[in-house]
């Protein structure tokens, strides 16, 4: 684990700081297609750690982390939204669906 290593304090600080930066970027919608999968992988790692801990009460917490991973992936695939940093930086995209042409009879 992180606590057993010699540089435990520094590794925990780096891990916590990176989690904070990724969470804030995801919250404001900055680089959502990149940050969403990173956040989902972090949630999945946490859920695997809880399941491997062997405590039966932790399985409910693990399912919560799995749900959070799925939500992170969904937001990454759907996009950050109109009121996000990505929309301000790259502009709002308008999807134009052309009318369907009827075949000539």
Describe the structure.
- Helix content is 66%, strand content 0%.
- The chain has 105 residues and is mostly helical.
- The chain has a domain at 30-81.
- The longest helix has 21 residues, at 8-28.
- The radius of gyration is 20 Å and the shape is elongated.
- 14% of the residues are buried.
Give the key terms.
single chain, 105 residues, mainly alpha, 4 helices
Beta content: under 5%
Tell me the helix content. Answer: 55-70%
The number of strands is 0
Which of globular, elongated, flat, extended, rod-shaped describes the shape? elongated
Distance between the termini: 71 Å
Nearest-angstrom radius of gyration?
20 Å
How does the major sheet shape up? Answer: none
Structural class: mainly alpha
Overall residue-averaged pLDDT value: 77
Element string (H = helix, E = strand): HHHH
Number of helices: 4
- Unreliable residue stretches: none
């Amino acid at each position: 684990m992180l606590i057993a290593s010699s540089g435990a304090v520094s590794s925990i600080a780096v891990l916590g700081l990176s989690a904070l930066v990724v969470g804030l970027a995801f919250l404001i919608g900055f680089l959502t297609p990149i940050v969403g999968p990173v956040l989902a992988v972090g949630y999945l790692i946490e859920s695997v750690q809880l399941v491997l801990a062997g405590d039966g009460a932790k399985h409910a917490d693990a399912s919560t982390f799995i749900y959070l991973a799925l939500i992170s992936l969904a937001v990454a695939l759907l996009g950050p939204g109109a009121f996000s940093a990505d929309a301000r930086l790259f502009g709002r995209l308008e999807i134009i669906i052309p009318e369907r042409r009827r075949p000539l009879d």
